[in-house]
Specification:
Blueprint lengths: L1 E5 L7 H13 L3 E6 L12 H13 L5 H17 L4 H15 L6 H26 L4 E3 L2 H4 L3 E4 L2 E4 L2 H6 L8 E5 L2 E3 L5 E3 L5 H11 L4 E6 L4 E2 L11 E2 L1 E3 H9 L10 H6 L4 E5 L8 E4 L11 E14 L9 H11 L4 E3 L6 E7 L5 H15 L3 E14 L9 H11 L6 E4 L5 E7 L3 H13 L6
Parallel strand pairs: 1-2, 1-9, 2-6, 3-6, 9-13, 12-14
Antiparallel strand pairs: 4-5, 7-8, 10-11, 13-14, 15-17, 15-18, 16-17, 18-20, 19-20
Helix pairs in contact: 2-3, 2-5, 3-4, 4-5, 11-12, 13-14
The structure holds aspartic acid.
The site of aspartic acid (ASP) has 13 residues, from α8.
């Protein structure tokens, strides 16, 4: 049994959903289909989820929302008409959205989640109706009825372990299950969405729960590429990689799969295949537990901006017991998570995602580190990028860091930080944001030219 998840661009229009129908029809083992909300049909289009967020926000401000409401409904009407479905499904969707808008707004986070989730929920109903219309034995299944239990904050749900047992019953169904991605319910029956892009997580949870033979994640690229095609022209295709490699790559900018989506599949050893709805015969990228060694030590290179560094120095820091803990406590008090923490003898840097900071928070942190930890020097710098070189083969090859640093030095850029995790699957370089592109190009040249498939 295979679980397939179709992303936003795969369900953005009637034409795309017809391709989904053909893909599901082509393989009877595709028994569970998870859908996103309709995404972008063209470059400047707006995703339905973003339309819904705008609608919810306007409604929370008690504005007249009829225009935003109609924009959302219009997307579904166009799809339903393009698929020759009758009025009934359009009415169901319109009533559903109307009821969600009329719900209690006492808790804005909860209200927002309700509206966001309608994007996938209503599309799943529509896709199930379409599947039936083309002769597939299909059924819409709601996450509440199926037992997808979550906890956590609005917009940041986490699946509970009990979910897996309950969802395993989907295996027994003789119909094709059409399941909305992106949300679950708390034990009290309250809807919570995952992070943005979270339909990938739903697909992975279902694949793990039913112990699927494969989790197919359909998107709009033939393969995952060794580097961002927006920076590198025709990058090498990755035919196979491990969960760990994908995890490291998606950490820094590989947006093909949500980084929380790997764990459920990994725990149950369900292989993941990234495939293209527009070219389903392309084999895609397989993500597996182990892979044979390739002649190439590096599998991919990714880069992500939006990092800041908190730099702290204090003479004899190395001998001060508890210094690191106290420093991290200050960050915890500000509800800030950190990414890396490279250190010297008398200094320590903590690398953070910049979106967690603003000038007030920065001032408070610097003040506390100075006064409570008596640091000699404290400052926060922003505009850093992390460049991550990833590959299982790196563990067994020598001289790789030398090749990487030599390549970076050829660009004239300065390396602000180097971090090699103990797993040795990745090597991370902190650089200034404005040097990111030229470094990526030079590293790609170093490790992937001449281009051969990994
Ligand atoms: N529709 C949601 C989003 O745009 C979830 C998803 O597509 O996975 O983030």
């Amino acid at each position: 049994m295979k679980v397939c998840k179709f992303g936003g661009t795969s369900v953005a229009s009637a034409q795309q959903i017809k391709k989904v129908g053909a893909i599901v029809k082509a393989d009877p083992s595709r028994k569970i289909v998870v859908v996103s909300a309709p995404g972008k049909r063209f470059e400047d289009d707006v995703k339905v989820t973003d339309l819904l967020i705008k609608l919810a926000e306007a409604s929370l401000r008690s504005e007249n929302v009829s225009e935003q409401f109609n924009k959302v409904i219009e997307r579904y009407v166009q799809i339903a008409e393009g698929l020759d479905l009758g009025r009934e499904i359009q009415d169901i969707i319109e009533t559903d959205l109307f009821n969600r808008l009329a719900a209690d707004k006492g808790n804005p986070g909860l209200f927002l989640d309700q509206l966001k989730a309608s994007g996938e929920d209503n599309l799943a109903k529509l896709v199930a109706a379409y599947f039936i219309s083309i002769g597939l034995h299909a059924e819409y299944v709601n996450p509440k009825d199926a037992g997808l239990l979550v906890n956590g904050f609005p917009g940041r749900a986490q699946a509970l372990l009990e979910s897996y047992n309950q969802l395993s019953c989907l295996r027994e169904k003789d119909t094709i299950t059409v399941f909305p991605g992106f949300f679950g319910f708390t034990e009290e029956g309250i809807l919570r969405t995952f992070e943005r892009g979270g339909s990938d997580i739903t697909g992975s949870i279902l694949a793990a729960a039913v112990k699927a033979e494969l989790y197919e994640n359909f998107t709009d690229v033939d393969y995952v590429y060794a580097a961002n095609p927006k920076i590198i022209e025709n990058p090498v295709e990755i035919v196979k990689m491990t969960y760990r490699e994908m995890r490291e790559l998606s950490y820094a900018g590989f947006s093909v799969l949500h980084d929380e989506a790997l764990m459920p599949a990994f725990k149950e050893s369900v292989p993941v295949c990234i495939k293209n709805t527009n070219n389903p015969l392309a084999p895609g990228t397989m993500i597996v537990a182990e892979r044979e060694h390739s002649f190439r030590p590096v599998t991919g290179i990714s880069a992500d901006g939006g990092f800041s560094t908190l730099y702290v120095s204090k003479y004899l820091m190395n001998r001060e017991i508890g210094f690191g803990r106290k420093l991290l406590q200050i960050l915890e008090d500000e509800e800030i998570s950190y990414e890396h923490s490279p250190s010297g003898i008398d200094n320590l840097s903590v690398i953070l995602r910049s979106h967690q900071l603003n000038s007030e928070i920065e001032e408070r942190i610097v003040h506390r580190v100075k006064t409570e930890l008596h640091a000699d020097e404290v400052h926060i710098n922003s505009n850093f990028s992390m460049i991550v070189i990833v590959g299982e083969g790196m563990r067994n090859s020598t001289g790789l860091a030398a090749r990487a640093t030599a390549a970076i030095s050829r660009t004239g850029a300065n390396i602000e930080m180097i971090n090699q995790g103990s797993s040795e699957v990745s090597l991370v370089f902190g650089v200034l944001k404005h040097d990111e592109t030229k470094i990526m190009k030079e590293l790609y040249k170093e490790f992937f030219v001449p281009a051969l498939v990994v």
